[in-house]
């Protein structure tokens, strides 16, 4: 049996550039590969990729593999799992890392089962155990209430998907050299089940939640769709974005893309204001990166007060107007 | 259509943080004495997806769960929502905290149930949040899978699923038999009626154990489980009136340069 070697990260592109998750993967991939004394490769799958993928060399990859075929223009489970399977069986890496993205979440579990190996998803930390040299995979569990550390002792490659923004992306070094290697997984296209019929891109107006410096989140206690306009007014005033916990999104009081939490958007603003939300762990898991946390809730026992820096117990409807007026006063003076 | 839904009984994720405690030896959360286990959120969404199909196409829904005896409670709840049959998979040898070990047992149970058209699972469970069992079952059964279902339509032996992806939605057509994992975008799960709750309480729910289904080993090993301590002390802003409190909050945030 051949010795397994090397770390592979599955890169993604966005708007003709390396997606931020890719530079984060390259950063952690480089660190892990160095600790194992092995090579780091990046793999890109798609159609019409061009030269962008090559930039992965500047961000730490020793090799960039490119699977570039019309078959991979749209993401389909069957084709991507099939391609990765062929790639892994040929290259035989020790570690395989993906982002915990739409792509990662769909392809990684099926691939892990096909390769008969152990995968851990949504990792917030990855490290090499100094004694066993195994990949230690840390992830939030119980809706974010606890952390668990896993290892995969037998299956190979050891697999993980990593959460966005938990790793500092690597810096570019344009003097780095590496190889660009095209790869053809030679899939039987007739065996691909399913097809993509249509895609609808979300129309997001205003500042993106993940990039906002100020986020105002509404919860179940908001009670309906109309009060969200008040939150939108506050967010606009503070140059921020509006988010929500799951219940308002499920009840369609606000767009689904407002959802902040373990299975929604992950935010890390300087100022977070949570209004009429209890602070369920699934929501907290999405915003604990916030610098200053403010909460307004009529229940003094609400979970959110356990992590908030500043809290107000009361009805937001009565508190917000005066709060907003005073804020407006400060902002007009600056 | 023959639909199968996989559901799991878990510790209620909405319990107050103060009540949440971990047993580091057992590597599990401790179930508080007076608190009932509940059906995992996204599994309820999976049941709702099955019921939406049943609303439009004549269907039989079988609910299966790997768990303890008390998991029969959630199976009955699913029947009360509109499912037809249920089976409990229970044995000390069945592992419920490793995606492969769990998927393997569920896949065998599904094979034992006979023919099916569509299997529905929640996108991830509210305890381990692993998000793998659905796709794993599909791989073990050799059937196509789609994940993150926000909407589903069945037409002419094909299923068109609207997947929720990071920048919007995509519609994917998948031939049957297949498996889909469901997200909460499917809509609010319906409430059971009183009549159905009564009927469900009388329903016979067979239990299959390690004599009926071969258990499997874990592929990952948990080294440790811990709850990070919370260090923040909240400063409560007050006032004579709500309006004054609002003003005081603004003043405080200005003072600490948050605004």
Question: Care to describe what's here?
Answer:
The complex is a heterodimer of chains A (334) and B (259). With 334 residues, chain A is an alpha/beta fold. Chain A folds into 2 domains: 7-191, Rossmann fold, CATH 3.40.50.620; 209-333, 3-Layer(aba) Sandwich (Rossmann fold). Helices cover 26% and strands 26% of the residues of chain A. Chain A is built from 7 helices and 18 strands. Chain A has helices spanning 20-36, 77-91, 102-114, 227-237, 246-250, 281-287, 316-333, and strands spanning 7-10, 13-14, 17-18, 40-46, 63-68, 95-99, 119-123, 125-128, 135-141, 146-151, 158-162, 179-182, 195-201, 214-218, 241-244, 271-275, 292-297, 310-313. In chain A, the strands form 4 sheets. In chain A, strands 7-11-6-1-4-5-12 form a 7-stranded parallel sheet, sandwiched between helices. In chain A, a hairpin with a 6-residue loop joins strand 8 (125-128) and strand 9 (135-141). In chain A, helix 2 (77-91) packs across helix 3 (102-114). The longest helix of chain A has 18 residues, at 316-333. Chain A starts with 6 loop residues before the first strand and ends with a helix. Chain B has 259 residues and is of the alpha/beta class. In chain B, 29% of the residues lie in helices and 28% in strands. A 9-stranded mixed sheet of chain B has the order 11-10-9-12-8-1-6-7-13, sandwiched between helices. The interface between A and B is large, with 94 and 85 residues. Strand 18 of chain A pairs parallel with strand 15 (235-236) of chain B.
